[in-house]
Design goal:
Elements: H1 4-39, H2 43-50, H3 53-83, H4 90-98, H5 101-104, H6 107-117, H7 124-131, H8 143-171, H9 175-183, H10 188-216, H11 220-225, H12 237-247, H13 251-259, H14 262-275
Helix pairs in contact: 2-13, 3-8, 3-10, 8-10, 10-14, 12-13
Length: about 280
């Protein structure tokens, strides 16, 4: 039993140890967030954004980038995590070690290397195409190919993380379920439909929502790969907000351009909390 005085002392100690964290949280998270909402309070900025064709294009690009990037990445990760369960094959043993390499490489180095590979004049991809008699491709000089390259890089870079997460979820499924299904004559597709997918559904939804939240704020990929070019057509909301803030010099406009995404983020966070059964969320 802890005495009343000792309880109070422990409370003071706990508060004292929490103060540095509370200070950092208020100074670097809470205050910037509240200040951002203050800057975004000018309604004329939203009217300006709605009249900006570049911003409308950025919204469409964000929907394409997030919609295609996240869903293709998660479907690939789900099936690739299933491939990793066949541990008796030599190739799978190699893949179990190598598949995390894209995720382990620093993002800055990976994006700049990918951009160098796509260079129209001396990139290794065009060098290979020319060597087999095909014409050079201006990968980053057209809207369609630049968007496709950004989505492909996003999938390549982040699929290993979610593959690892889903692979861990697969390992948590009791092997006895598959053994019983095999005894009953079930094939691989039956096991996938009636055992793996129902038991992995919650984890799949959780990882997809979490990936969507992170991808909505992805700035590095598009900014370092295309810089919004050609002609500003490949801007995402995150990169355009950065341009408004630092290049145009209108901080309020930059914050307002991203604040529009906040309702979407709140809905995704609610779904995330719902999927992990956070108490009080119904």
């Amino acid at each position: 039993m802890v005495a009343k005085g000792e309880k109070a002392t422990l409370t003071y100690y706990g508060l004292a140890f929490s103060l540095p964290f509370l200070f950092i949280f208020c100074a670097f998270i809470l205050y910037p967030l509240l200040y951002g909402f203050t800057l975004a309070g000018d309604l004329s900025k939203y009217q300006e954004l709605m009249q900006d064709n570049l911003y409308s294009m950025a919204i469409v690009n964000t929907l394409i980038y997030v919609g295609l990037g996240v869903n293709i990445k998660m479907v690939f990760s789900f099936f690739f995590s299933g491939l990793l369960t066949f541990k008796e094959h030599t190739l799978v043993k190699v893949l179990r070690v190598a598949y995390l390499l894209p995720w382990a490489i620093p993002a800055l180095s990976a994006i700049l290397s990918f951009r160098w590979m796509l260079n129209a004049d001396w990139g290794i991809i065009n060098y290979f195409l020319v060597s087999i008699g095909l014409p050079r491709v201006l990968w980053l000089n057209s809207y369609e190919s630049a968007m496709a390259c950004a989505i492909i890089f996003h999938i390549w870079k982040w699929a290993p993380l979610w593959t690892m997460t889903l692979f861990a979820g697969r390992l948590a499924i009791a092997p006895e379920l598959y053994e019983s299904a095999k005894i009953d004559g079930a094939n691989t597709l039956y096991e996938l439909r009636y055992i793996t997918m129902p038991l992995m559904k919650r984890l799949y939804i959780l990882t997809t929502v979490l990936s969507t939240i992170w991808t909505l704020g992805d700035f590095n990929t598009m900014w370092l790969l295309t810089g919004g070019d050609p002609g500003g057509k490949t801007h995402l909301i995150s990169t355009l907000a950065y341009k408004y803030t630092l290049f145009v010099g209108d901080v309020s406009l930059g914050v307002s351009s991203y604040i529009i995404l906040m309702p979407v983020l709140f809905i995704l966070i609610f779904v995330l909390m719902k999927s992990v059964n956070v108490p009080g969320v119904s």
